[in-house]
Amino acid sequence: MPTIRVDPVAPDAGVIARAAEVIRRGGLVAFPTETVYGLGANALDAAAVRRIYEAKGRPGYNPLIAHVADSVAAARLVRAWPEAAARLAAAFWPGPLTLVLPKREVVPDIVTAGLDTVAVRVPAHAVALALLRAAGVPIVAPSANPSMMLSPTRAEHVEQGLGERVDLILDAGPTRVGIESTVVDLTGDRPVLLRPGVLSTDDLEPLIGPVDRPAEAGGTAPRRAPGMLARHYAPRAELRVFEPTERGRAAELARAAAAAGRVVGALVLVPLDAPVHEEVCMPAEPAAYARELYDVLHRLDALGCDLVLVEEPPATPAWAGVRDRLRRAGQPAGAQ
Ligand code: TXA
Ligand code: MG
Fold first, then answer.
1. Domain count, the chain
2. What protein residues have CB closer than 5 angstroms to ion ligand 2?
């Protein structure tokens, strides 16, 4: 599992060629995107894709995102390219947006977990784009972490989580966006937001009209992303989200937990008045908060925190991606 350092802006062509060769031979390459590190395999090679599910311990019902270098390559994987797809692709690709569209036969069933639709995305990262071009095939890439755990925003997180199960890791430093892409389903009458991200409905709706939001509605919606389990993106520590108005109660909880010998961490917008082991003041702006979130949670896990108290950010569309990840990270183990 060699890790190779690569420049995030001008990656070395020799290193990219070597990684592309691993992909073409059916191997697994962890690589940076602007959101999180992905675990990549040739999307057209069912055996290679199966190795991804094995390496992550990912349930077979959770489909993967096919990454491509541009809209032309995306259109080759789908049966329809509606006006909404054209508009979103023109506005946001390369970028942290994934579109779900009816799939073509060329996409193996294992990529889509048997669904008739496929998720496609053009990542905004020079290393990812260079790898896609050099490999000459679409690359499926879930986040490069064991299933259910925190996504990696640094190559070190990939090494710690997947280690020997990856053939090659491309290390281009920390990722810029920090949480996974916004996923939008364009196969129905109206677009549906399957997973919020840093691109919010405020960004999408001016271009394509009203977007349904089952992810915010809390699981009552008819069409959910098959992979959107209640618990996901989770640290080892127990994570409790509190509202700013509950600050006093959260401080009491921290005191009681510390007195009981638990190692307590806090992620806050305003400092808690309590003796916590590690308190992180998070940015008050959603993009900056998203960039730091997983890195901070990885760090609190490494410090041995067993309880992390998190102040809930505002309930506005711009914060929807961050709020979604906090909610999932906060579910008790085993919750669906
Ligand atoms: O930012 C990202 O999207 C990262 C980077 C590596 O690109 N990738 C990522 O992949 O987050 P993953 O596998 O961790 O999450 C993919 C999400 C899952 O929630 C999955 O259920 C959903 O996309 N998905 C994939 N294909 C789908 C489909 N055909 N229909 C509905 N949801 C789909
Ligand atoms: Mg993931």
1. 2
2. 143
